Amino acid sequence: MDNLCPFYTNSSPAEPPADTLKRVLSGKVQGVCFRIETQRNAKRYGLVGWVKNRADGNVEGEAQGPPSEIEKLVGHLKEGPRHAKVMGYQEADLDVKRGQEAETTFSIIRKTG
């Protein structure tokens, strides 16, 4: 029997729209709690991903989630924590990670070795 209701489908609900953003920030961005503040804001907005210090003195991070929440995080990244001074940034849109590649939380990647 055909379904007469145009709003009914047999498929599972679609995943909410998501974006993935990668950003590298330069300036006074290490030693000023930038990673902790980024993680706190990302979790508040329901984003997943990571943030880390780079050997060149910059901070790099990747965040995935709803576009409106990504934009909120970007606003915080441009400002940085109180003692930070963001002088520049590079950004790139990335493909959304799904399945085994997907992040499940927002983490701080610490140096190893």
Automatic annotation (TrEMBL):
Domain Acylphosphatase-like: 20-110
Class of this enzyme: hydrolase
Catalytic residues, chain numbering: R35, N53
Keywords: Hydrolase
Single Gene Ontology MF annotation: acylphosphatase activity
UniProt-recorded name of the protein: Acylphosphatase
Catalytic activity: an acyl phosphate + H2O = a carboxylate + phosphate + H(+)
EC number assigned by the record: 3.6.1.7
Family label: Belongs to the acylphosphatase family.
Keyword Hydrolase: yes
Stretches assigned to coiled coil: none
PANTHER family recorded: ACYLPHOSPHATASE (PTHR10029), ACYLPHOSPHATASE-RELATED (PTHR10029:SF3)
